[in-house]
Design goal:
Blueprint lengths: L2 H8 L8 H8 L7 E5 L5 H7 L4 E6 L2 H10 L4 E4 L9 H4 L12 H4 L3 E6 L13 H10 E10 L4 H11 L4 E6 L3 E6 L3
Parallel strand pairs: 1-2, 1-4, 2-3, 4-5
Antiparallel strand pairs: 5-7, 6-7
Helix pairs in contact: 1-2, 7-8
């Protein structure tokens, strides 16, 4: 799929990521794959369709978004999760991986995840969970040789957690659209 095709397929969907960000991910999807996405939104069906024949799973904490996507797209595999962190706790949690484990359905722990997209939970204000657990869990769930993409990676918290758990040596690229998307390749 070219960037022009990505632009055309997503132009009326109300997706926050810009075509250049979407394309950075799409060019690393070679179906069928196992893809895990932290966060649901207007792009959920797009990811499902791009990974035709593969397993695409979404984790969402926000009840309204969870219910909205389940109602609009009942064929998607979406699980509701609960974060017990607050964005403002990020400094005290960064060196406590035992507090960064996110409870997910047990069967998802056994999947070999080829690609993970961290685009949730919402992260822009104090009182929200922040993406600390999502980034940590991505580092634990991704297979060796797998790809992790972190959206909104320009923020201080996301940057610190990416450095700590995804590691600078695994950094591949960064693209900017509406926000910043970072790509990490976990070594084999």
């Amino acid at each position: 799929m070219t960037i022009e095709e990505v632009t055309e397929r997503t132009k009326d969907l109300g997706i926050q990521m810009q075509p250049i960000e979407l394309f950075e991910i799409v060019k690393n999807i070679h179906p069928p794959m196992n893809i895990l996405v932290f966060g649901v939104g207007n792009d959920s069906m797009f990811w499902h369709e791009v990974n035709k024949g593969g397993k695409t799973v979404f984790l969402e904490d926000h009840a309204k978004w969870f219910n909205n996507i389940r109602e609009k797209h009942p064929s998607l595999e979406v699980y509701q999760v609960k974060y017990d962190t607050k964005r403002e706790q990020w400094k005290e949690l960064i060196d406590k991986p035992e507090l960064l484990t996110l409870e997910i359905p047990a069967e998802l722990n056994d999947v070999t995840w080829d690609l993970i997209i961290v685009d949730g939970p919402m992260t822009f204000e104090d009182g929200r969970p922040g993406r600390m657990k999502s980034i940590y869990m991505a580092s634990k769930l991704i297979k060796n040789g797998g790809d992790v993409f972190v959206h909104d990676a320009h923020g201080e918290i996301q940057n610190a957690y990416c450095k700590k758990y995804l590691l600078d040596k695994n950094f591949i690229s960064e693209v900017s659209g509406f926000s910043t998307l970072r790509h990490y390749k976990i070594p084999k």
